[in-house]
Amino acid sequence: MSHDGRFAPSPTGELHLGNLRTALLAWLFARSQRARFLMRIEDLDVGRARERFVDSQLADLRALGLDWDGEPVRQSRRQALYAQALARLEREGLVYPCFCSRREIREAASAQHGEDAELVYPGTCARLAPSEARRRVDAGEEHALRLRAEGVVVTVSDRLHGAVTRRVDDIVLRRRDGAFAYNLAVVVDDAEQGIGEIVRGDDLLSSTPRQALLYDLLGLERPSWAHVPLVLGPDRARLAKRHGAVTLRELGERGLGPERVLSLLAASLGLAEEGEQVAPHDLLPRFDPMDLPREPWILDPGELAEAA
Ligand SMILES: [Zn+2]
User: Fold this and answer.
1) Distance from the alpha carbon of residue 221 to the mean position of ligand 1, in angstroms
2) pLDDT-derived band of residue 118, with 50, 70 and 90 as boundaries?
């Protein structure tokens, strides 16, 4: 198993401190094991993706002193790979069309699990007769394609969280608009790029068993996962624009250059003293995944600006 790692931003905006901290961690995991570190642009959702953010995101990562191997891979140019994987699942009878609207799914899910339930697809269209499903597809009815997971329970092992067990629902593989779904693309990409260790925010932990199932069904070797704590604003919501100056550009305008930001991120991870000047490579000998904070970093961007 390789220890190769990656960072895979979606070009929907500028990276904020939470993204940058996760990128730094992913880099540290890979580089501390002398492994490759790859970059992937998750621009599958072409409508929302904006080219200028691709450039600004990569420039910000470089400004922090992070480097990566080879050219960044673009999801939007890899449709054939996702189609191949989908075709393989279809051949094995693991895919069915779903004609439900979002509203129908929300209503069915909340009837089953109560209002607070995460949106879990209740499998309505899995029970359609194959002839009926075929007739509606042939009639041109809009539909998504879903995985026939049959309620399988999957356990994954995470470096920081240990074993995580979850029933996998019939996830979307291809959306109604024809776009391949994130869960399918991320598995195909990570496997194809040879990623052995996936480091990302722990908001994605709950979807990991779904992806593990796809690895298994596609005959791919599962990677290992490390889900790292997020950065939260003073209101304990995930750090976002509304919390204030959170991007490298905004912080720079307030006198906090990339060196100061890196120092701040390193200190938040227990890898540097407050205010210590560091480069990413200085952090490698200090880095031990087991010593990482397990709690989110609560940050008030207003205080950062004052400190500058
Ligand atoms: Zn359905």
Assistant:
1) 30
2) low
